[in-house]
## 1
Amino acid sequence: MSDGTALRGLSESGRVAAPGEGIGLDELGLAARNHGVLLEALRHDVTPPGLHYLLTHYDVPFLDPDEWRLTLRGAVRTPRTLTLADLQARPAVTQRVTLECAGNGRARLEPRPVSQPWLVEAVGTAEWTGTPLAPLLGEAGIGPAAVDVVFTGADHGVERGVEQDYARGLPVAEALREDVVLAWAMNGAPLPPQHGFPVRLVVPGWYGMAHVKWLTAIEVLQRSFDGYQNAVAYRLAGEDPDDPGEPVTRIRPRALVVPPGFPDFLSRSRVVRPGRCLLEGRAWSGRAPVVQVEVSTDGGTTWDAADLEPADPRHPYAWRRFTYGWDATPGSYELCARASDAEGGQPLEQPWNRQGMANNLVQRIGVVVTEVGG
Ligand SMILES: Nc1nc2c(c(=O)[nH]1)N[C@H]1C(S)=C(S)[C@@H](COP(=O)(O)O)O[C@H]1N2
Ligand SMILES: [Mo]
């Protein structure tokens, strides 16, 4: 990691938009590279290939799987270097995990932190196949003094003047969880290039930034990792520039409705025919099981419980389907849904933070109910 003055002039990342300032071309460029799930694809239990949201800070690296190596180093008794075949010869597990970008909801914050301008769609659920990390760390011998495990990707770039490989530290207790895996397959096929080929980390329950793609190194530290993505990015910091803020960790609860009826092309407001309308959607939380989903058809004034499908013990970190029968009569409506877990629910007004992280504000969908021909 180097900090060059010349690099600092490349962009004004870390900026907060002026009051009323619209989405700029830089943000449009990011939004055109990184895409969200199409909300109608929330109908699938497992998000089909290509529909899963995508977030890549720098460039997608072009890696040759035969040349690829993963080094395990740092505070371990036996450092080692693994090939893809070495990893794939180990015991494999498949788990269904919902991933959500910590920046989801950022574009709704006022003032808007200038970055990838997600609304609500930075989410997806995949079946990840890989080998558990804990036994590998155990074999390498990590000892009781380990604090953080740092995962480094093959991608390289500059952020706020800091040149870096994408790297994230994870507390050792999390890294040793039995469901943390080094994954080489997504939905039964090799990882697509954009999702981390040939190998990525999967940390069920954590926001997306922890799931390091294009892994090249795993390093055990006997201190906290102070790299950019932990110390500067992915914090819940307020307006005071000296406030480092709390680290972003697990996914907060969220419910999203599949927009009903059919859309207006530009605004994506919905048109629904009068009569019985079965609303459906998905709800998830990475910190505790979702206990309740509620739906509002009047913009959040009154709420009604939705039917939430029972938790499936095989998939504790996958989203769950909910449904709600709505008797739609002609008029204009604002649909909302909100999920709660044991720690709380989604806010109707989102507390602001400087980087626009973990904004799980309730979704709002404008609907006009009208007869055929309107
Ligand atoms: N190496 C690397 N890993 C990365 C990223 C990245 O830019 N580089 N982005 C992270 C972020 S911010 C998110 S939200 C998830 C997105 O995973 P996906 O693109 O497979 O949906 O990957 C994470 N892992
Ligand atoms: Mo992210």
## 2
Amino acid sequence: MPEPLLFSKGSPGRMGVSLPDPDVPVKPLKEYIPPNFLRQHRPRLPELSEMQVMRHFINLSVQNHHVEKNMYPLGSCTMKYNPKVNEDVAAKPGFAHVHPMQPDDTVQGYLQLLYETSEYLCEISGFDAASLQPAAGAHGELAGLMIIRDYHESRNDQRQIILIPDSAHGTNPASVTIAGYKARAVKSNELGLIDVGDLERKLDHTVAALMLTNPNTLGLFEREITTIAERVHHHGALMYMDGANMNALLGLVKPRAMGFDVMHFNLHKTFSTPHGGGGPGSGPVGVTNACKTFLPSPYITKEGERYTRQSLSPSKLATFMGNIGVVVKAYTYIRMLGAKGLRRVAENAILNANYLKSQLSETYDLPYPGMPLHEFVLSGDRQKRQGVKTLDIAKRLLDYGVHAPTVYFPLIVSEALMIEPTETESKESLDNFIHIMKTIAKECTENPDMVKKAPTTTPVSRLDEAAAARDQDIKHDFCG
Ligand SMILES: *Cc1c(COP(=O)(O)O)cnc(C)c1O
């Protein structure tokens, strides 16, 4: 049964709070507010007990899938477990109740935390400076591309093109376009890596940057990355790294050492802050000294023991310091794990992905057989020949209580199933996933219609996703 709306559950006069009687005389509202501003009727809000409200939201939360419930192998999204200690720290009044316009002197601890987070991100990536302003990965991409434009313009160099491999995440060309550049695709070779010959042919003085994810969206490391960076720099262009896949590199490889000049992080992926309906994101951008002056403001500096907010450039991308509640959680995660712990995150993420790949690559096609890092991409082509699409397999997984992988991405793999287990899954839960994937493959042969009707155990089955996006009914006529 779908959970009814709260509006159908209340009863007049029921209360979820108890307030003490006021200890000052209470005058009618109209003595404070002119009557023409006062509403004529009471709002029709549901009146509920605390228990009803709690059960309502608990019931809703178990209808949806989340990582607290079971595995969430959504490739490229790094849906790792978010340790609850992050929430405890972010909820501390000294962080949660700070006003963004408080003078620097009254928020030294906060500024220190933000400063140290940028320092940690620089240490992890090898960059010289970082801004915490961008509010998501895509926002970080936009910031990075605008920094690249400022860099070229400051040298009186007009460039129009950003090169992007054909395996890129969709936000890459979108950010390029919003930043006023033209995106041009570079081909992947048969190994799923950048075709360096094709890159060479497309490099000239009109190219502002190459935008790359490494490991790429197939989970494969660009082995020729230093040659690629050298060729790009030779033409006066910069190297942008989409850092969404940093989970594979923590403590192992520094993007700066691979030749990148600008990069964004996804704190909500790599650094364990909730995302995907679970909360806001944060997409800090790191740069080399050559680009530092173009970082958005405010930028925190440390002189002696004093932290101050300063302006490097006149640009701003978010209100105040960005989504700093998210930064507190990421900071907590980094401090809890330390350098050794972060390295083990990457090692175990890689181990888990390779274990799954080795166990599943006979049951499903593996179009790019290289050794992946933290994620890998299967193809449902074989199952499609039996009449079952990858979408059906994804839906059938929900019946078995796990979230579906990313499907139909990257675009260079037909019927793609992009699987990222993350380091936080145990061997038992990986084995469970392998068992489920093999069971579904068997069902595709023996009972394809059952797979095509899936899911049958979820509160809702197949939704019209296009209509849900275009024809939304989010404001019901309840409030009068
Ligand atoms: C998630 C992701 C992005 C975009 O990040 P958001 O925080 O979702 O805006 C960009 N590139 C890749 C490879 C990603 O996985």
